[in-house]
Design a protein that fits this description.
This protein is mainly beta. The chain has strands spanning about 5, 10-15, 20-25, 35-40, 45-50, 60, 70-75, 80-85, 90-100, 105-110, 115-119.
Length: about 120
């Protein structure tokens, strides 16, 4: 099992940037596909981006393409989400998770970090 801890959320004005980090426990981090999900009030949780274990393949939801960048450092057991050009509709709780690539479903989850974008 993998334990995941997110950090880096906060309040930012529209157009601003934030970087989220997700630190994982264990010595097999590089074998896990990792993703960032978000859930806004009254909405379903959605996968916004994911990266394969090796980092050589990525997925982005259309809503974040060109603004968000996922990266990982397997030596540090950490995955990052750089968010630029933030919009009020990006406001949500952001979760990192291990991901089944074929379905983009998560299965080990962090506790989440709040991102609030003011207009």
């Amino acid at each position: 099992q993998v334990q995941l801890v997110e950090s880096g959320g906060g309040l930012v004005q529209a157009g601003g940037s934030l970087r989220l980090s997700c630190a994982a426990s264990g010595r097999t981090f590089s074998t896990y596909n990792m993703g960032w999900f978000r859930q806004a009030p009254g909405k379903e949780r959605e996968c916004v981006t994911a990266t394969k274990g090796s980092g050589d393949s990525t997925y982005y939801a259309d809503s974040v393409k060109g603004r968000f960048t996922i990266s990982r450092d397997n030596a540090k057991n950490t995955v990052y989400l750089q968010m630029n050009g933030l919009k009020p509709e990006d406001t949500a709780v952001y979760y990192c998770a291990t991901v089944v690539w074929a379905t983009m479903n998560g299965y080990y989850w962090g506790q989440g970090t709040q991102v609030t974008v003011s207009s």
